[in-house]
């Protein structure tokens, strides 16, 4: 009986996927050859997992899913996301260390760090900053297809001058629209009380599911979500990692993943005891084998 229900569920899903594709072609592709990147349209037609992620995020309502795909594809075209490379983003943005991928939470999700105190609102650099975030997200989508991210807003030593509401809204849209079902959780660490009003506004931009993913915590309590091995000393952690550029951190994504986070063998543990002084030697001690990959990528 259970097998029959499963088969029926899969058939219903496939019908939704095909309906989405047909409607997108008939309602959105007519006379809009320049509206989207042809590579994104091709993926939509050939990658069931991609369509399924959009459908799931819109509770299988096809019309809502189509609006989301339209908005997402227009954004990808506007920002040239398929062609975003390290050379496209201004070098100084990488050098600040305000945004980067490094480490894992206790559930094995990659950590996407935002060092809020390093962000200064400046209309002249807004577009480049948005491309910078898109660069990291697209890079991760290619390297770890289907694997969710945990966003960490490190608000230590930050103030009003570091809060850019438009930029925060953009980041939220990245996970609400552009990369659906990509967000595992959003951890806000050490938020100053004076910013409570700002976060009330930010929460109004989130849907119910996204709000449930918000975790407000202090530096002393963040270990509920992230183990000390991936937290800096000022958060009570033991991670010796210090951002520097170049190269990009975790450039080869060589840390193997298991259900409970990165796998570290006994040999690796012993080798790391004498290698904590530099990030390069620490990361080189990791095995290059990636495990627990999804069967097929949601985007690639």
UniProtKB/TrEMBL annotation:
GO CC list: endomembrane system; endoplasmic reticulum-endosome membrane contact site
Signal peptide residue numbers: none
Disordered, as annotated region: 256-283
PROSITE patterns on file: CRAL_TRIO
Organism: Gouania willdenowi
Family matches, as Pfam families: CRAL_TRIO
Bias (Basic and acidic residues) ranges: 271-282
Cross-referenced SMART domains: SEC14
Highest taxon listed in the record's lineage: Eukaryota
CDD domains assigned to the protein according to its UniProt record, in alphabetical order: SEC14
UniProt-recorded name of the protein: CRAL-TRIO domain-containing protein
């Amino acid at each position: 009986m259970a097998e029959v229900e499963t088969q029926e569920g899969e058939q219903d899903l496939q019908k939704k996927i095909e309906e989405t594709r047909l409607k997108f072609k008939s309602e959105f592709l007519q006379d809009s050859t320049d509206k989207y990147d042809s590579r994104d349209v091709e993926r939509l037609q050939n990658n069931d997992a991609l369509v399924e992620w959009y459908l799931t995020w819109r509770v299988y309502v096809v019309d809502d899913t189509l609006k989301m795909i339209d908005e997402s594809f227009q954004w990808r075209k506007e920002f040239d996301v398929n062609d975003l490379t390290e050379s496209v983003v201004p070098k100084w943005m990488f050098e600040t260390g305000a945004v980067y991928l490094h480490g894992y939470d206790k559930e094995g999700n990659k950590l996407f760090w935002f060092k809020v105190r390093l962000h200064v609102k400046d209309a002249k650099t807004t577009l480049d900053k948005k491309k910078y975030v898109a660069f990291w997200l697209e890079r991760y989508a290619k390297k770890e297809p289907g694997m969710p991210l945990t966003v960490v807003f490190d608000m230590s030593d930050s103030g009003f001058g570091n809060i850019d509401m438009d930029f925060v809204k953009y980041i939220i849209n990245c996970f609400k629209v552009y990369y659906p079902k990509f967000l595992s959780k959003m951890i806000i660490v050490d938020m100053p009380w004076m910013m409570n009003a700002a976060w009330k506004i930010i929460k109004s931009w989130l849907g119910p599911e996204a709000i449930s993913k918000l975790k407000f915590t202090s530096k002393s309590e963040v270990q509920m979500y992230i183990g000390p091995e991936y937290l800096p000393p000022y958060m009570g952690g033991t991670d010796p990692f210090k951002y520097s550029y170049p190269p990009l951190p975790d450039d080869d994504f060589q840390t193997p993943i298991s259900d409970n986070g990165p796998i570290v063998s006994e040999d690796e543990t012993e080798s790391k005891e004498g290698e904590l002084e530099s990030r390069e030697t620490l990361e080189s001690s990791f095995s290059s084998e990636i495990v627990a990959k999804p069967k097929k990528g949601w985007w690639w």
